[in-house]
Amino acid sequence: MYKAKVNKNNYEVKFEKSEAFLNDSPFDWDMTQIGERTYHILSNHKSYRAEVINVDAQTRTVAMKINGKKVDVELKDKFDLLLEKLGMDVSASAKVNDVKAPMPGLILEIDIKEGDEVKKGDAIMILEAMKMENVLKSPGDGVVKSIKVKKGDSVEKNQVLVLF
Fold it and tell me: 20 to 30 A from 49, CA-CA: which of 73, 76, 86, 153?
Protein backbone atom coordinates (compact mmCIF):
# COMPACT_ATOMS: atom_id res chain seq x y z
CA MET A 1 0.00 0.00 0.00
CA TYR A 2 1.06 3.56 -0.71
CA LYS A 3 -0.21 6.95 0.36
CA ALA A 4 0.07 9.83 -2.06
CA LYS A 5 -0.52 13.49 -1.40
CA VAL A 6 -1.22 15.34 -4.65
CA ASN A 7 -1.47 19.12 -4.26
CA LYS A 8 -2.76 18.67 -0.66
CA ASN A 9 -5.29 15.95 -1.61
CA ASN A 10 -4.67 12.55 0.02
CA TYR A 11 -5.02 9.23 -1.78
CA GLU A 12 -4.46 5.60 -0.85
CA VAL A 13 -3.04 3.41 -3.61
CA LYS A 14 -2.91 -0.39 -3.60
CA PHE A 15 -1.68 -2.89 -6.14
CA GLU A 16 -3.08 -6.43 -5.99
CA LYS A 17 -1.89 -8.86 -8.63
CA SER A 18 -2.43 -6.95 -11.89
CA GLU A 19 -5.06 -4.53 -10.53
CA ALA A 20 -4.67 -1.04 -9.09
CA PHE A 21 -6.98 0.52 -6.50
CA LEU A 22 -7.33 4.20 -5.70
CA ASN A 23 -9.09 4.80 -2.36
CA ASP A 24 -10.39 1.20 -2.52
CA SER A 25 -11.97 1.70 -5.97
CA PRO A 26 -10.58 -0.10 -9.04
CA PHE A 27 -8.40 2.22 -11.10
CA ASP A 28 -7.83 1.40 -14.76
CA TRP A 29 -4.87 3.11 -16.41
CA ASP A 30 -2.18 2.59 -18.99
CA MET A 31 1.14 4.43 -19.10
CA THR A 32 3.75 4.61 -21.87
CA GLN A 33 7.08 6.40 -21.69
CA ILE A 34 7.47 8.72 -24.69
CA GLY A 35 10.60 10.62 -23.68
CA GLU A 36 13.33 10.62 -21.05
CA ARG A 37 11.04 12.29 -18.49
CA THR A 38 7.74 12.32 -20.38
CA TYR A 39 4.87 9.83 -20.24
CA HIS A 40 1.50 9.32 -21.92
CA ILE A 41 -1.25 8.11 -19.57
CA LEU A 42 -4.71 6.80 -20.44
CA SER A 43 -7.31 6.61 -17.65
CA ASN A 44 -11.12 6.52 -17.81
CA HIS A 45 -11.04 7.21 -21.56
CA LYS A 46 -8.99 10.39 -21.03
CA SER A 47 -5.48 11.11 -22.26
CA TYR A 48 -2.83 12.79 -20.10
CA ARG A 49 0.71 13.95 -20.82
CA ALA A 50 2.94 13.81 -17.72
CA GLU A 51 6.38 15.40 -17.51
CA VAL A 52 8.61 14.74 -14.50
CA ILE A 53 10.31 17.99 -13.49
CA ASN A 54 12.12 16.99 -10.29
CA VAL A 55 12.43 13.92 -8.07
CA ASP A 56 13.68 14.24 -4.47
CA ALA A 57 14.30 10.71 -3.21
CA GLN A 58 15.12 11.84 0.35
CA THR A 59 11.80 13.61 0.92
CA ARG A 60 9.98 11.27 -1.50
CA THR A 61 8.49 14.12 -3.49
CA VAL A 62 7.97 14.48 -7.23
CA ALA A 63 7.29 17.74 -9.05
CA MET A 64 5.63 17.19 -12.39
CA LYS A 65 3.39 18.73 -15.02
CA ILE A 66 0.25 16.94 -16.11
CA ASN A 67 -1.22 18.45 -19.29
CA GLY A 68 0.84 21.57 -18.54
CA LYS A 69 -0.45 21.98 -14.96
CA LYS A 70 2.16 21.77 -12.15
CA VAL A 71 1.50 18.98 -9.66
CA ASP A 72 3.44 18.19 -6.47
CA VAL A 73 3.27 14.58 -5.27
CA GLU A 74 4.46 13.22 -1.90
CA LEU A 75 4.72 9.43 -1.74
CA LYS A 76 4.85 7.11 1.26
CA ASP A 77 5.30 3.36 1.02
CA LYS A 78 4.47 0.80 3.72
CA PHE A 79 7.83 1.34 5.42
CA ASP A 80 7.39 5.13 5.55
CA LEU A 81 3.90 4.62 6.99
CA LEU A 82 5.23 2.22 9.64
CA LEU A 83 8.01 4.64 10.64
CA GLU A 84 5.46 7.45 10.82
CA LYS A 85 3.19 5.32 13.01
CA LEU A 86 6.13 4.63 15.34
CA GLY A 87 7.00 8.34 15.45
CA MET A 88 10.26 7.84 13.57
CA ASP A 89 9.39 9.49 10.25
CA VAL A 90 11.72 11.79 8.33
CA SER A 91 9.90 14.99 9.26
CA ALA A 92 9.98 14.15 12.96
CA SER A 93 13.68 13.38 12.88
CA ALA A 94 14.56 16.53 10.94
CA LYS A 95 13.37 18.88 13.69
CA VAL A 96 15.74 19.13 16.65
CA ASN A 97 14.70 20.52 20.03
CA ASP A 98 17.57 19.36 22.22
CA VAL A 99 20.52 17.03 22.62
CA LYS A 100 20.72 14.86 25.73
CA ALA A 101 23.64 12.94 27.16
CA PRO A 102 23.47 9.34 25.92
CA MET A 103 25.36 8.16 29.03
CA PRO A 104 26.97 9.59 32.17
CA GLY A 105 30.31 11.23 31.53
CA LEU A 106 32.53 14.30 31.48
CA ILE A 107 32.30 17.13 28.91
CA LEU A 108 35.78 17.39 27.35
CA GLU A 109 35.10 19.83 24.53
CA ILE A 110 32.25 22.00 23.21
CA ASP A 111 32.48 22.74 19.48
CA ILE A 112 29.49 25.10 19.23
CA LYS A 113 28.28 28.35 20.75
CA GLU A 114 24.86 29.95 21.17
CA GLY A 115 23.49 31.25 17.88
CA ASP A 116 25.45 28.76 15.75
CA GLU A 117 23.58 27.06 12.93
CA VAL A 118 24.22 23.31 12.88
CA LYS A 119 23.43 20.69 10.27
CA LYS A 120 22.57 17.05 10.83
CA GLY A 121 25.76 15.14 11.65
CA ASP A 122 27.81 18.17 12.76
CA ALA A 123 30.01 17.48 15.82
CA ILE A 124 28.74 19.54 18.75
CA MET A 125 30.77 18.27 21.71
CA ILE A 126 32.95 15.48 23.07
CA LEU A 127 31.78 13.43 26.05
CA GLU A 128 34.24 11.18 27.89
CA ALA A 129 32.58 8.05 29.25
CA MET A 130 34.32 4.89 30.49
CA LYS A 131 37.71 6.31 29.41
CA MET A 132 36.49 6.71 25.82
CA GLU A 133 35.90 9.95 23.93
CA ASN A 134 32.47 10.06 22.27
CA VAL A 135 31.74 12.70 19.66
CA LEU A 136 28.15 13.86 20.05
CA LYS A 137 26.62 14.93 16.75
CA SER A 138 23.56 16.97 15.91
CA PRO A 139 20.62 14.68 15.08
CA GLY A 140 19.18 17.31 12.70
CA ASP A 141 19.38 20.89 11.46
CA GLY A 142 18.86 23.76 13.90
CA VAL A 143 20.14 26.92 15.57
CA VAL A 144 21.71 26.63 19.03
CA LYS A 145 19.53 28.53 21.55
CA SER A 146 21.49 27.64 24.67
CA ILE A 147 24.22 25.34 25.92
CA LYS A 148 23.34 23.89 29.32
CA VAL A 149 26.83 22.58 30.20
CA LYS A 150 30.41 23.80 30.12
CA LYS A 151 33.77 22.16 29.58
CA GLY A 152 34.67 20.00 32.59
CA ASP A 153 31.08 19.38 33.74
CA SER A 154 30.01 15.90 34.81
CA VAL A 155 26.67 14.90 33.26
CA GLU A 156 24.11 12.19 33.91
CA LYS A 157 22.37 10.06 31.31
CA ASN A 158 19.52 11.97 29.55
CA GLN A 159 20.67 15.32 30.94
CA VAL A 160 19.90 18.12 28.46
CA LEU A 161 23.16 19.43 26.99
CA VAL A 162 22.00 21.75 24.20
CA LEU A 163 18.68 23.41 23.32
CA PHE A 164 17.73 24.32 19.74
Answer: 76
